[in-house]
């Protein structure tokens, strides 16, 4: 069961099913009941945690997902594809293109309206979904394609983390933020000590868990989005401990956290309006995700490949970069979060943004399935031809 929950295929299918189910339930007779459940508040307001069920999912559970992203990011930066600047520079530039161009497309479509602050929505790439689609349809593609996609998606998420921390911070409580920094420093020191001791490890682990929860609470009260606490904790964990946490928590994240977030985020009522009455935000996101991402990643990645090409270093072809760029248009999880943060005070536009993310990511999924399948078939054909020639 654990191996199934770790599978990129399972993660992608679970996210898709959860999103479709959330949308279906919200638009069924059960919709009002679901809305009441998601809007219900916890009884913990006395300790400063007066959150609805929906916010517990997006602010609380989703911090677990960002914890894993940070652990993966640290692994890539220290010992993975991003540890060598010469190797990391091309996916880094491609990732910047995959953020700048979609944001530009969004701003171009919404120019002259009051919705320009939603520009971060189409800048994200969903790692789980993109890798899942590649795993399902990409049999036969060279491993360099997956490596490039992973590096690009990780860097893309790093940019998304910065955007969440900077753009969506509100009424910052610097005292709470300072407290979070102190707690995180204590977490880092205990994490380092954990690597050097054999006795009392259980007590140290319990202390780390308590400090992690306290850091999350303080970041939540600071006005910075609480998921940033998960990022900080993941980056501060020593790599061996981070690997252990990743191995143990990934099935929980893939099997519960992400599907639950997808279900809750997609549970919106489809507006009973004509296409012409939809806001510019809807059209901006629908266009920016599948189109802006392809243009940005392909253009910036191809230029970077030409500039930083070096003898003896394998570089992706234009076709392979374009294949990755189509996969990059699957925004989904982080795009849904960006939408929630951008339009939290405008329920109508918030719902349209959710639908736009689902439609835009859906278009990117279908396009990815076609492009990846054709590309993989071409590589398999070449390999079969090469093997046939070698046996003659």
UniProtKB/TrEMBL annotation:
Keywords on record: Antiport, Cell membrane, Ion transport, Membrane, Sodium, Sodium transport, Transmembrane, Transmembrane helix, Transport
Reaction(s) catalysed by this chain's protein: Na(+)(in) + 2 H(+)(out) = Na(+)(out) + 2 H(+)(in)
Bilayer disposition of the protein: Multi-pass membrane protein
Main localization (coarse): membrane
Family recorded in the similarity comment: Belongs to the NhaA Na(+)/H(+) (TC 2.A.33) antiporter family.
Stated role: Na(+)/H(+) antiporter that extrudes sodium in exchange for external protons.
Name of the molecule in the record: Na(+)/H(+) antiporter NhaA
Species for this entry: Curtobacterium luteum
């Amino acid at each position: 069961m654990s191996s199934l929950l770790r599978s990129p295929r399972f993660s992608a299918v679970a996210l898709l099913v959860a999103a479709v189910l959330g949308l279906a339930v919200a638009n069924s007779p059960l919709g009002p009941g679901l809305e009441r459940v998601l809007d219900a508040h916890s009884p913990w307001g006395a300790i400063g945690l007066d959150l609805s069920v929906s916010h517990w999912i997006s602010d609380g559970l989703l911090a677990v997902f960002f914890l894993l992203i940070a652990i993966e990011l640290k692994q890539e930066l220290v010992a993975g594809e991003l540890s060598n600047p010469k190797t990391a520079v091309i996916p880094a530039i491609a990732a910047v293109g995959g953020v700048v161009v979609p944001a530009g497309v969004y701003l171009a479509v919404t120019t002259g309206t009051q919705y320009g602050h939603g520009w971060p929505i189409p800048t994200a790439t969903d790692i789980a979904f993109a890798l899942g689609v590649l795993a399902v349809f990409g049999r036969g593609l060279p491993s360099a394609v997956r490596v490039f996609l992973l590096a690009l998606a990780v860097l893309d998420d790093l940019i998304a983390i910065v955007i969440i921390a900077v753009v969506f911070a509100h009424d910052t409580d610097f005292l709470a933020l300072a407290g979070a920094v102190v707690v995180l420093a204590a977490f880092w020191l205990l994490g380092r000590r954990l690597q050097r001791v054999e006795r009392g490890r259980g007590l140290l682990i319990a202390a780390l868990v308590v400090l992690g929860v306290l850091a999350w609470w303080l970041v939540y009260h600071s006005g910075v989005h609480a998921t940033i606490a998960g990022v900080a904790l993941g980056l501060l964990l020593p790599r061996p401990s981070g690997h252990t946490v990743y191995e143990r928590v990934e099935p929980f994240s893939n099997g519960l956290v992400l599907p639950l977030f997808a279900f809750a985020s997609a549970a919106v009522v489809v507006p009973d309006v004509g296409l012409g009455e939809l806001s510019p935000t809807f059209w901006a996101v629908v266009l920016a995700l599948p189109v802006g991402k392809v243009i940005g990643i392909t253009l910036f990645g191809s230029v970077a490949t030409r500039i930083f090409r070096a003898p003896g270093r394998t570089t992706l072809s234009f076709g392979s970069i374009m294949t990755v760029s189509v996969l990059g248009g699957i925004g989904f999880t982080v795009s849904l979060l960006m939408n929630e943060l951008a339009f939290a005070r405008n329920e109508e536009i918030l719902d349209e943004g959710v639908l736009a993310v689902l439609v835009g990511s859906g278009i990117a999924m279908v396009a990815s399935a076609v492009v990846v399948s054709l590309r993989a078939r071409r590589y398999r054909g070449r390999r079969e031809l090469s093997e046939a020639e070698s046996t003659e």
